[in-house]
Amino acid sequence: MAARRISSLLSRSLPLISSDGKKSYFGRRIYRYSTAAALEDPIKPPVTVEYDKLLINGRFVDAASGKTFKTLDPRTGEVIAHVAEGDAEDINRAVAAAREAFDVGPWPKMTAYERSKIMFRFADLVEKHNDEIAALESWDNGKPYEQSANIEIPKVVRIFRYYAGWADKIHGLTIPADGPHHVQTLHEPIGVAGQIVPWNFPLLLFAWKVGPALACGNTIVLKTAEQTPLSALLVSKLFHEAGLPPGVLNVVSGFGPTVGAALCSHMNVDKVAFTGSTETGKVIVELAAKSNLKPVTLELGGKSPFIVCEDADVDKAVELAHSALFFNQGQCCCAGSRTYVHEKVYDEFVEKAKARAMKRTVGDPFKSGTEQGPQIDAVQFKKILRYIRSGTESGANLEAGGDKLGTKGYYIQPTVFSNVKDDMLIAKEEIFGPVQSILKFKDLDEVIRRANNTQYGLAAGVFTQNLDTANTLMRALRAGTVWINCYDVFDAAIPFGGYKMSGNGREKGEYGLKNYLQVKAIVTTLKNPAWL
Ligand SMILES: NC(=O)c1ccc[n+]([C@@H]2O[C@H](COP(=O)([O-])OP(=O)(O)OC[C@H]3O[C@@H](n4cnc5c(N)ncnc54)[C@H](O)[C@@H]3O)[C@@H](O)[C@H]2O)c1
């Protein structure tokens, strides 16, 4: 769809939620958001759903059972589409297609350059259809359209170009060994990769998984999240238009305990890559171990610290900490969900963080200027509201927000708690919503100990102008990524993954290729000595 048409639809006048209401509550003044009249009349998304079946062996097909499930609009809870619901039988069909495309070919037998050309063509097609794909992503997920169109889909394009560039640069080594032997290694694709993605970044995580797997010559059966099945079907169609042979990329929509479990348990799947909760990650590893011991890479949950040191420029730190937490409705595995602030700047920081949250524009994702849309679904919505209640009940100060917005869909007020203690649930567990928890600290040793005192280790943020402080923290923090004076920098070349129970393996960058390669050692006897 033409970009012009989409932007004209988006500029329809619709008021955003204003945030200037105030109300006395338990003797304290807290801020309240005004009634969300604007949310009652959702903007019609500028896209239609064309693909709602399973994609197996290059064709869109119904589920073997004929069943479908509903995918819902998070703005209203209304049905967007009925999508074919796969189960174990469909996984069998998809794995058979992927197996054939791997064992017989053509994918791993094509030259790397031919594979890379198809991936580059696909990236061009995604770029061409950017606005249409972004609209579908935002409709199914609830994230602001401008975020999808200007950040996420361009990043999908970048990831595919990055890995297309790697396809013909993957090679092994020659190794000097004792004795009369010529030793070399081949870096070979693993085979059929099972990939399971969550709903918070449906296409970006599709790209993180599909890009490196295809560059290395693997074939794929991918399971989308049941909340967001649509965008992967659309782009997979484009991949076939770009020349991807049938069977190389199969997409099976459906639920975790059926489709997901069948994929992880399948004896003909050679590897599983999973992104989702730590709880489900444990199930995945167990299913893989109990079947054929396939290797598993995991990108799981987090409770990442964002540390504001005493020398920080408070205004900049407030803005960065705000986006570190609230980006994508707070639904980020690496959200900076424990904001540690030095006592010298704490009071000023809390006041400004509250004011910033109050200014956050919550509204229809298709309205230009919206920073925050609805949460993904009723389950997450209720869970977040329970955490907010728990924060208040455990004695944290509710500085802003604290409630839902509107009567339709899953909108939640940007919420800020101060005076949060490490042992409160809101400081320990992953909320996955727009709830900022601010904690006070006195010195570096203390904040290092507290920041590391978690089962997670996905990411950390540090805000300081002092080089020694930055150097100390970047080494002491036990996390897969440490962002210094920045946050959420997701370049295609930068590896991403977790320490501890945030997962294992790294996605993106050169490291991401390792998940999809195995090493074969070739040893050839030489005449002794070889040069005679
Ligand atoms: N580390 C990362 O890169 C990263 C990125 C995004 C999200 N996450 C994490 O994902 C979680 C939110 O996503 P969610 O609620 O959809 O997680 P989830 O674990 O419930 O679901 C993720 C995916 O796993 C599937 N699944 C569920 N049960 C399964 C089973 N028994 N067998 C196989 N597959 C199964 C789901 O259908 C979905 O596709 C958060 O904890 C978040 O931190 C991590």
Descriptive account of the structure:
The protein has helices at 3-10, 88-103, 112-128, 130-141, 145-166, 202-215, 230-241, 256-265, 278-290, 314-326, 346-359, 378-393, 425-428, 444-452, 467-476; strands at residues 21-25, 28-32, 54-56, 59-61, 68-72, 79-84, 174-175, 181-189, 192-196, 219-223, 249-252, 271-275, 296-299, 305-308, 338-342, 397-400, 404-405, 411-412, 415-418, 435-441, 459-463, 481-484, 503-504, 517-525. The model is unreliable at 1-32 (pLDDT under 50). A 7-stranded mixed sheet has the order 16-19-20-15-14-21-22, with helices on both faces. Strands 11-10-9-12-13-23 form a 6-stranded mixed sheet, with helices on both faces. The termini are far apart. The chain is of the alpha/beta class. The longest helix has 22 residues, at 145-166. Bound molecules: nicotinamide-adenine-dinucleotide. Nicotinamide-adenine-dinucleotide binds next to helix 8 and helix 9. GO terms for molecular function: aldehyde dehydrogenase (NAD+) activity. Keywords: NAD, Oxidoreductase. Residues 60-522 form the Aldehyde dehydrogenase domain. The active site is at 299. It comes from Fraxinus pennsylvanica.
